[in-house]
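User: Let's play a game. I give you a shape written as tokens, and you guess the letters that built it. Ready? Here's round one.
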């Protein structure tokens, strides 16, 4: 695949930021700031998407959650014992 056809991301940064990124990249064995920034951005994007996926409920799950919030079950013996321990 030709590199020229791939999308590009660019950013202007100050010298202090460049040094920060280069130092961090070097510490983990990455010699390119671009690679470091791309890897960090991908990790952050995946974390955001995982978090969003975890916190989303379908309609049935939402109704069930709301039902139990409005009508909590009676505590069982195990739960009562845990409260007594604390």
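Assistant: Ready! My guess for every position:
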């Amino acid at each position: 695949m030709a590199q020229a056809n791939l999308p590009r991301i660019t950013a202007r940064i100050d010298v202090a930021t460049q040094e920060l990124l280069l130092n961090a990249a070097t510490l983990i064995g990455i010699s390119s700031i671009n690679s470091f920034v791309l890897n960090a951005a991908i990790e952050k994007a995946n974390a955001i998407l995982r978090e969003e996926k975890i916190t989303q409920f379908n309609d049935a799950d939402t109704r069930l959650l709301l039902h139990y919030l409005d009508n909590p079950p009676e505590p069982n013996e195990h739960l009562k014992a845990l409260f007594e321990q604390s």
